[in-house]
Amino acid sequence: MRLAEDREAQPSAGVMDSQSVKAADTVGRDSRGYDAGKKINGRKRFIVTDT
């Protein structure tokens, strides 16, 4: 994909971001966490993309 867009084969940098997603009370406690910064019970998901 990168070569098709006439870019270097290896990325020079990457960007990481995360998001806290609220979980319903019916979701088992063992499969959800707690984000103390946002005071949210739920899951945290991450994405990494190259630039």
Automatic annotation (TrEMBL):
Residues 1-36 are annotated as: Disordered. Residues 10-51 form the Transposase IS4-like domain. InterPro entries: Transposase_11 (IPR002559). Residues 27-36 have a biased composition (Basic and acidic residues). This is Transposase IS4-like domain-containing protein. It comes from Actinoplanes oblitus.
